[in-house]
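Q: Got a minute? One more chain.
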Amino acid sequence: MVGASQLALIDRLHSVEYRTEADLLAACRRRDIRAFEQIYLANVPRLKSMAYHILGSRPDAEDAVQETFLKLYRGIQGFHAQSSIGTWLCRILINTCYDLARKRQREVDRGGPTAEPAAPRNQIGLKMALDDALRRIHPNYRMVFLLFEVEGLRHSEIAAILEVPEGTSKAWLFEARKELKQLLTETLR
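A: Always. Here it is, folded:
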C-alpha cells in the first residue's frame, strides 16, 4: 500500500518543470524522460500541424512527428543550442517530411502501394482551390506561407528553421502571396 507521503513524492516527480531551456536540455542529455515528455507536450501540436500541411496525410504526419522525436532523442548530445529546441525540432521535422515524401514518391514510381490522403467531408471549392494553388507554388514559398500564415511563426523563427536570412523569409512570403493570388484568380474565374 502506498502512503500519502509516497504519493506526494510521485506526484512531485511527475510535475517537474524546468525553469530554463538550458535546464531542460541538461535533463535531456541525462536521458530524463520527463524532460523529453515536456518537450513533446510543448511542441507536438505545432509539429503535427506542420507535418500535415507538408505531407497532406494524417498518418504520414504522425509518422514524421514520431521520427522527429526519435531523432531528437538520438541527437540531443549533438545539439549545441544555437537555436531554441522548438526551432531545431521544426528543422528536423521539415527534413523528415521531405525524406518521407521522397520515400513515398519512390514507392509510387515502383508501382508500390500508395496512400491517398483522405479528403475532408464537405470540402468547399475555395479550400480545394487553395490547396491546389499551394501545391503549385514554389516549395520554399509554400513552406514560408504555411509557417507564417498557418503556424503563426515570426519571420525570425522561420529564418532560423529554414536557415535563411530573415529578409529572404519575408521575400518568399511576398512571392507566395503573389503567386497564390494569381493562381486563385485564374481558378475562380
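A: The first helix runs from residue 4 to 14.
Q: Perfect, thanks.
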